[in-house]
Design a protein that fits this description.
single chain; 151 residues; 23% helix; WH_DNA-bd_sf; WH-like_DNA-bd_sf; Putative conjugal transfer nickase/helicase TraI C-terminal domain-containing protein; TraI_2_C
């Protein structure tokens, strides 16, 4: 998450734009409480990290991982991120959430997949305003916080 923090701080990792790999979004949890979370677009954000630093969980060392299987670059980083417990699981054994990109005129658009980072203020302060062009695909996160903290 240090790479995300630094990139957001220095502008090298834009957020809430049409090409951004990081967005801040409003979601409604099962308990009907609306929260702002950070959305990391997957698998693109993990691939970008792996291209720059290698596909090892430490993110340091010998640079890009040239040994990675094509199409699998970033999977090691994604696995380490998942195991860190910073995200809101999607339920039913899944970790990735879907958001719909809302076009002008409030009509639906394409879908965006990503990991929701809970309590983004741990990594970004102040937390930027949410992207009003992204809407949670089912409108509600299907798990409650007790399920997320049980892992």
């Amino acid at each position: 998450m240090g790479w995300v923090q630094q990139g957001l701080a220095d502008g090298s990792l834009p957020y809430n734009t049409s090409t951004a790999l990081v967005h801040f979004v409003k979601v409604i949890l099962r308990d009907e409480k609306e929260e702002t979370m950070m959305l990391l677009v997957s698998p693109a954000v993990f691939r970008k990290f792996a291209e720059a630093y290698g596909d090892q969980a430490t993110g340091g060392g010998d640079g890009p991982d040239t040994e990675a299987t094509p199409g699998k670059l970033g999977m090691g980083i994604q696995m380490a991120f998942t195991q860190a417990g910073w995200h809101q699981p999607a339920g039913r054994g899944r970790n990735v959430h879907r958001f719909q990109v809302i076009r002008r005129g409030e009509s639906g658009g394409s879908l965006l997949n990503g990991f929701l980072v809970t309590n983004p203020e741990r990594f970004v302060n102040p937390v930027p305003p949410p992207n009003d062009r992204l809407r949670y695909w089912s409108q509600n996160v299907t798990v409650d916080k007790s399920e997320a903290s049980a892992s």
